[in-house]
Amino acid sequence: MEILSTDILVVGSGLAGMVSALEAEKAGLHILITGKFTIGSGTNTSLSNGAFSVANSLFSKEEHLKETFNSGKGLNHPGMVKTMIERGPDAMETLKGYGVSLVENRMGYFVERREGSASLPGVLLANPLKERVQNSSVRLLPGLVIFDLIVEEGEMRGAFGFFKDGRPCLIQSKAVILAAGGAGAIYRRNDNQRSALGDGYALALRAGLSLLDIEFIQFYPFVMAEPRLHTFILYPPYPKETRLLDEKGEDLLERLNFGEDLNRAIITRRDSLSFTLFEASRKGDIYFDLRRVPEETWEHYPLNFLRRSKFPFRDRPFLVAPAVHFCMGGVESDENGRTALPGLFAAGEAVWGVHGANRLGGNALTECAVFGILAGQSASEYARGREPNLFSEPSRRRWERKAEGYLRKSRGAFDPPIQILKDLKALSWRHAGPVREESLLKEGIEELTSIERRIEKVYPSTLKDLFRKRDLENAALILKAILRGSLARQESRGSFFRQDFPDQNDREWLRHTCCRFEKGELQITHRPVLET
Ligand SMILES: Cc1cc2nc3c(=O)[nH]c(=O)nc-3n(C[C@H](O)[C@H](O)[C@H](O)COP(=O)(O)OP(=O)(O)OC[C@H]3O[C@@H](n4cnc5c(N)ncnc54)[C@H](O)[C@@H]3O)c2cc1C
């Protein structure tokens, strides 16, 4: 087994991970950064639309604060919101200093794109950061998938994982920054990277930390749903000639009372549009129709992006559906990126706090930048001057045995992990989708138990199965937390809609859902909100 030592290990190389690694490096410490793929790639950051909500000359801090709290419906962490808003402008300067080209707009900043370029804004955001990390002293460990965080005597000691070629690796580290992103891909319909299966949440739960408000999932009304095409988001703004049609070719926006302006409906009524389209899609297919869009509009972003596909987007309506976009809940941490576990820090979509019951557009990237910087600073303060964490001999042997356990081949037959993942994603969509209710949630929990039994039987007959089994265990754990948290919350708030409890109930439910993993079982409790 390969054994590495470092001051700080960063798990995840999206915006939050790269920024925290660069910040920690400034303190002259030794930093390792991992990602499931090459650094910066295969991240939600690289898929993003590059919009940052940050106060500027056109958007005051007061407006930003008000809109963030309005979206969060009383469940935001007030201190984290204030920190993000106060520090947002400086974080933009830091990103510019790393070579990210940002332009001001009405709600903050967006990643500058050259006219006619069909590159995604997220790629233009991730690439300069990746270059900066590659040219720094930060050591890259691409393709090292972390399976476990290591806690000894109540402190963070490092992590254990496997490289994609199957080599096990034990990392002794004074501090760890968890920046492993969200869990959108546990759903059949989502616009996230396929690898966004909730690893960060599962790592934290197994290390004894709490996940808060994990049932709050943001849905986006339209992603590509053509069977043979990869699911991806259709980025706004949509040309005014865009139409949304039902199976008979009739205009759906008007019929569902969302007016004529799709862009306005997206901005002002995104969630109700998602709920309504989810219901409508149960009855029949929904189509986007771009046939009336004039020729010259196809030269510009976002339609020039669609033009790269062989699919005849210009010539015929194509299938769309609502999909999971973002996870509001996550690991409990404070205004400085510190978790309750000494030596563990966290940033980005993996973390709960800023968004409450729903996310204001553009706040996710701002959160990654601000708390990435803060987690990097807090981790370096913690690690500086501490003795290296060297595992004792018995401890190393324990992890060697654990590695052998993960690699143990199956003697009996088991379902292909790919099929199990497909079934799990279908279950999430059916039972924990945009519209939830008691009987569906209970059925979902029961069905998940049988999926868990199928996962237990999987033992790797190939290297791919080694990683797929861990993916499945993580995804099942997080789905269970979402289902259980949703069942307990008997109201509707922000992105969360219970058909059987359609109203927001502040008297009983202005509370955070707190999920812990104790003795192999998920425990759900509730706690009062912090003063806004
Ligand atoms: C299509 C789309 C468009 C979006 N547009 C915007 C936007 O314009 N503005 C906005 O504010 N937000 C937007 N968002 C949300 C935003 O992009 C994400 O919340 C943000 O990029 C998350 O960054 P992150 O660094 O936390 O995680 P990610 O960028 O997802 O990176 C996670 C990293 O963790 C690694 N990882 C995961 N598990 C492990 C493991 N076990 N071991 C090792 N590494 C691991 C991954 O490989 C990856 O490197 C968008 C999201 C999507 C999907």
Can you give a write-up of this model?
The chain folds into three domains: 2-216 and 328-383, FAD/NAD(P)-binding domain (3-Layer(bba) Sandwich), CATH 3.50.50; 222-323, Alpha-Beta Complex (Flavocytochrome C3, Chain A, domain 1), CATH 3.90.700; 406-504, Fumarate reductase/succinate dehydrogenase flavoprotein-like, C-terminal domain (Methane Monooxygenase Hydroxylase, Chain G, domain 1). It contains 15 helices and 18 strands. It has helices spanning 15-25, 44-47, 61-72, 78-97, 121-134, 199-206, 252-255, 262-283, 303-306, 363-383, 393-407, 417-431, 438-457, 463-488, 506-509, and strands spanning 2-11, 31-35, 51-53, 102-105, 108-111, 139-142, 144-152, 155-163, 168-178, 211-212, 217-224, 243-245, 286-289, 318-327, 330-331, 344-346, 511-518, 521-528. Strands 1, 2, 6, 7, 8, 9 and 16 form a seven-stranded mixed sheet that branches. Strand 8 (155-163) and strand 9 (168-178) form a beta hairpin. Helix 3 (61-72) crosses helix 4, helix 6 packs across helix 14 (463-488) and helix 12 (417-431) packs antiparallel against helix 13. The longest helix is centred in the last third of the chain and has 26 residues, at 463-488. The radius of gyration is 22 Å and the shape is globular. The mean pLDDT is 94. Residues 11-17, 34-37, 42-45, 47-51, 145-146, 179-181, 191-192, 195-196, 199, 233, 325-326, 348-350, 362-365, 368 line the site of flavin-adenine dinucleotide (FAD). Flavin-adenine dinucleotide binds at residues 11-17, 34-37, 42-45, 47-51, 145-146, 179-181, 191-192, 195-196, 199, 233, 325-326, 348-350, 362-365, 368.
